[in-house]
Amino acid sequence: MSGHPDRRFVTVAAISTAFFLSSSFAISWLDESGAVPAHWLWLAAILPIAALLVPLWALWRYLWELDEYLRSIQLKGIYFGLTVLLVLVTGWGYAELYVDAPRLPIFWLNPIYWLAYAAGAMFFSVSGSLQR
Amino acid sequence: MKNRLKELRAARGWSQAALAEKLGVSRQSIIAIETGRFDPSLPLAFRIARLLGEPIESVFEDDEPA
């Protein structure tokens, strides 16, 4: 795939997100319908992993296509995303243990990370521009 | 690290976008370097100095006391 790195990364991320969501809904539907044997559900349940690995690979490639300044912004965004994720899951874990907080399904960690990363990358990009 | 990139670029009549294109980096990078928000790597600093035809120490200056 050729073109601008930003466009290429956004395209891959959008397609993999659509695949992640559709495969997640498909698994849920297959489970409720009882249309497939249980061992096929195991196989179907790991399908979204592909949708997780593809954007991670695309992000890695994107990082090395950027120049060093833009790469530093993306790395800050990645660090911010991981910080949000670790703080959230640790805090939520303790809340589940000690104050009966509702259970947080772990598949939410994937979208939470990507949203936090996107917010962090946008923040560092905009805050850099504001200091001109 | 202080630098004279803005001054040296302006003396040549180059826009930020033109300099970015000559160096193969983004315009945001040039803005960040000129405003002192980002210190380029040594290879990029050498590329900048070479493009401007200046010694690297005339473009970039260490602001740490000796």
TrEMBL record, chain A:
<protein>
    <recommendedName>
        <fullName>Transmembrane protein</fullName>
    </recommendedName>
</protein>
<keyword id="KW-1133">Transmembrane helix</keyword>
<keyword id="KW-0472">Membrane</keyword>
<feature type="transmembrane region" description="Helical">
    <location>
        <begin position="75"/>
        <end position="94"/>
    </location>
</feature>
<keyword id="KW-0812">Transmembrane</keyword>
<feature type="transmembrane region" description="Helical">
    <location>
        <begin position="42"/>
        <end position="63"/>
    </location>
</feature>
<feature type="transmembrane region" description="Helical">
    <location>
        <begin position="106"/>
        <end position="126"/>
    </location>
</feature>
TrEMBL record, chain B:
<dbReference type="InterPro" id="IPR010982">
    <property type="entry name" value="Lambda_DNA-bd_dom_sf"/>
</dbReference>
<dbReference type="GO" id="GO:0003677">
    <property type="term" value="F:DNA binding"/>
</dbReference>
<feature type="domain" description="HTH cro/C1-type">
    <location>
        <begin position="5"/>
        <end position="59"/>
    </location>
</feature>
<dbReference type="InterPro" id="IPR001387">
    <property type="entry name" value="Cro/C1-type_HTH"/>
</dbReference>
<keyword id="KW-0238">DNA-binding</keyword>
<protein>
    <submittedName>
        <fullName>Cro/Cl family transcriptional regulator</fullName>
    </submittedName>
</protein>
<dbReference type="Pfam" id="PF01381">
    <property type="entry name" value="HTH_3"/>
</dbReference>
